[in-house]
Amino acid sequence: xxxxxxxxxxxxxxxxxxxxxxxxxxxxxxxxxxxxxxxxxxxxxxxxxxxxxxxxxxxxxxxxxxxxxxxxxxxxxxxxxxxxxxxxxxxxxxxxxxxxxxxxxxxxxxxxxxxxxxxxxxxxxxxxxxxxxxxxxxxxxxxxxxxxxxxxxxxxxxxxxxxxxxxxxxxxxxxxxxxxxxxxxxxxxxxxxxxxxxxxxxxxxxxxxxxxxxxxxxxxxxxxxxxxxxxxxxxxxxxxxxxxxxxxxxxxxxxxxxxxxxxxxxxxxxxxxxxxxxxxxxxxxxxxxxxxxxxxxxxxxxxxxxxxxxxxxxxxxxxxxxxxxx
Length: 326
Description:
It is a single chain. 39% of the residues lie in helices and 17% in strands. The protein is globular. It contains 13 helices and 11 strands. By secondary structure, it is an alpha/beta fold. This is Cobalamin biosynthesis protein CobS. Residues 60-221 form the AAA+ ATPase domain.
């Protein structure tokens, strides 16, 4: 991909073949991978509806936003699809430190022929727009207003970026794609769980062609993911232990939905619990260090009850004999 104006060679592959979904869609797969292509995670589980939404973004150049609770794998879902399409991908976290200059670019001092000269250094948007690149804006609803209006310029299909300071009009590469992930889909921080998120401009939100919701997986699939991430734990203690762990996580999610808890266990947290269990060799201790200590003190008895119901033991007890640390 030395010439950025050339469309990379690709072939059309049935989505059913790549992702195991019931669809007749055929998706382009680049023949030559680059260093920006994410690595394939063979253990990743694809949500059929969300997969179709993301594939529509890749095949039809639609702007796709994924909304959902933390730890549900929104960004990873996009990356894993890009990995199987050999599509270069980069992520930008729209935290409060990302400025307009970070996106557009700014003048910087560089050394040319032994002399310091001022030269324009392009930001992430011009860099990505010129390339066959899937650009993902993480935490999209946490972006600053001045940053969001810069992004609005490229949200429309074929949207061009005008660098006024450089007197340049950048046309997007034919294989440039734009995605975003958000926890609140632009409605603001209604429950206090996602402090720092903003209410999105509805005119901008309307420019996203597709908005999909990614929820947590069914328990059996989540158990399979944890087992794939921590195979040593599965081999040592069997699937029953992992099923109990996921059952605890599911109870915290039900408690959160009912208003009994102010936080919940994401799949990411369950995997951390499993990984910590390999370190500490005690599910109760690993649970306290992985999740319980993050909870409000007034809510910890509720979480302890969830643990007792799933493991049939008090949280203060060890559900497994302590093992010698390796």
